[in-house]
Amino acid sequence: MKRSENMNALFEAVLRLESIDECYDFFEDLCTVSELKSMSQRLEVAKLLKSGAVYTDIAAKTGASTATISRVNRCINYGEGGYNLIIDRLRDKKNELL
Fold first, then answer.
1. Long-range contacts of 59-68, Cβ-Cβ distance < 8 Å, separation of 24 or more
2. Distances from the Cα of 61 to the Cα of 44, 65, 72, angstroms
3. Which of 31, 51, 57, 76 is deepest in the core (most CB within 10 A)?
4. With 90 as the cut, is the pLDDT of residue 1 above it?
5. What DSSP line would sit under 40-80, residue for residue?
6. Residue 90: which of 53, 47, 54, 48 has the closest Cα?
7. Taking the CA atoms of the chain, what radius of gyration do you get in angstroms?
8. Of 12, 16, 10, 9, which Cα lies nearest the Cα of 30?
9. What is the mean pLDDT of residues 5-30?
10. In the chain, count of helices (H) and strands (E)?
């Protein structure tokens, strides 16, 4: 994706959110319910792919289409590393809490 001042401003805004409640407020204003559900579904698909789950199980658990699962898988394997980065950080945070 081409970087732009508008995208930079959006990402700067996200980086300034300080709590889950602030995230809910901002993203509910910014996105439609459908967009938020799609994004959260893709993150769940990525977590399941990284854990070794197969497409049929992922589709059954998340309701994602095989096209969505395939796209997320392609991003995990050949993308910019964003899914891998955040899944690792979420895993590390979860382990810290244990």
1. 68/41, 68/42
2. 9, 11, 15
3. 76
4. no
5. HHHHHHHHHHHTT--HHHHHHHH---HHHHHHHHHHHHHS-
6. 47
7. 15
8. 10
9. 98
10. 6, 0
